[in-house]
Amino acid sequence: HSVVRNALFCLETAANQRENHVYTKALLAYAFALAGNSEKRKALLDSLEKEAVRKDGSVHWQRPGKEPEADLPYYRHRAPSAEVEMTAYVLLAHLTSQPAPAQEELAFASLIAKWISSQQNPSGGFSSTQ
Fold this sequence. Notes:
Layout: H1 2-15, H2 22-35, H3 38-50, E1 53-55, E2 58-60, H4 81-95, H5 103-118
Antiparallel strand pairs: 1-2
């Protein structure tokens, strides 16, 4: 359909910009995964992997220039909703591929899922509004 084709062209133009915010890259990676554009999806995921925060056996993404959280005993930091959302979009982009994700991609996705699950509040929800 021409509307979808035009929308994808707009997204491709945005993806080709030199500097994209990490949140934008996460959304674009998921959009291209849904659209079946594996080349763009992979390029964005490769770029995102370079910006990943690896800590305590998990992987997540945070906004550039953010202050590192305090590492205090008996204190469990919960990330802001934007970071939970963008990390979840990266996870969805990893899991939305045709054919099914490779074993190494699933292993990386499990590290992302580990971080996301650590962000649950005592009621089982998240700070994210999405």
